[in-house]
Design a protein that fits this description.
about 190 residues; mainly alpha; 10 helices; elongated
Amino acid sequence: MNKAITSQEAILCVGKEIVLEFGLEGLNIRDVARRCGVSVGSIYNYFPTKSDLIIATIESIWKDIMNGYKVCKDQHSFVDNIQSLFLNIQKGPVNYPSFFSTHSMSATAIDKEKGRESMDKYFLHMKKGLLVALNADSMVNDDAFSQAFTKEDFIDFVFSNLITLLVEQANSCNFLLEVIRRIIYK
């Protein structure tokens, strides 16, 4: 082997290339090692299991997808933030076809607990950002919320529907935005 990989990032870059070509189901340690020009053992130094490699690759893809999205709490409404998040994540499948429909199955089929933890981490980060945006929106009717209908539960509802729209490859989230408007604004 004539080329040495010295970083996890370089391995993940090759992993993402494979995902672009073959989807997550095509990602395996032998192909990554071959493309990196190193032994299979070298890959195992960074990723002790195939599951670890897949999960790290999924996390890296999520970072790529979320790059550029920031919660705009100063000038934008909550619905503007939802629309922005939808559009930002919607670009992900352009770069990583079938990512949303296969990533949870790929990670959890190998190591359900690690896969779930990885997804939950990214989803929790996005939900926290949405809660910040909701709290910063001065047009929100605070009377819309109660102990039985909390802001956190509302965020879970909105986020779940947003992800469903993305998995189903919806062209827009306009209906969800209208539901939100009718629930939280005066």
